[in-house]
């Protein structure tokens, strides 16, 4: 797990070429909240936690659709993270 540290992904891939580099979930949520208004942060954080805790890849898009509909699609840039 590497959280934006420069050079680490390259160093890890040099030694372990098949490695998948991940970002810490807490940092993904924190960085995602930069795109949400202060008013919406609590609701966005609650949905993001559910999305990141989902066991299968099929369920998060449903939760994300629910969030964007509930928030008037104001937070769609978060989906790109």
TrEMBL record:
PANTHER family xrefs: MUTATOR FAMILY TRANSPOSASE (PTHR33217:SF8), TRANSPOSASE FOR INSERTION SEQUENCE ELEMENT IS1081 (PTHR33217)
Biological role: Required for the transposition of the insertion element.
Protein name: Mutator family transposase
Lineage: Bacteria, Pseudomonadati, Pseudomonadota, Betaproteobacteria, Burkholderiales
PROSITE patterns in UniProt: TRANSPOSASE_MUTATOR
DNA-binding keyword on record: yes
Annotated signal peptide: none
UniProt superkingdom: Bacteria
GO biological process: DNA transposition
Family: Belongs to the transposase mutator family.
GO molecular function per UniProt: DNA binding; transposase activity
Pfam families given in the database record: Transposase_mut
Keywords, ordered alphabetically: DNA recombination, DNA-binding, Transposable element, Transposition
């Amino acid at each position: 797990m590497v959280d934006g540290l420069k050079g680490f992904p390259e160093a890890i891939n040099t030694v372990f070429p098949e490695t998948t580099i991940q970002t810490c979930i807490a940092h993904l949520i924190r960085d995602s909240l930069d795109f949400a208004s202060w008013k919406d942060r609590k609701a966005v954080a609650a949905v993001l936690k559910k999305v990141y805790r989902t066991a299968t890849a099929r369920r998060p898009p449903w939760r994300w659709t629910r969030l964007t509909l509930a928030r008037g699609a104001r937070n769609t840039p978060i989906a790109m993270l």
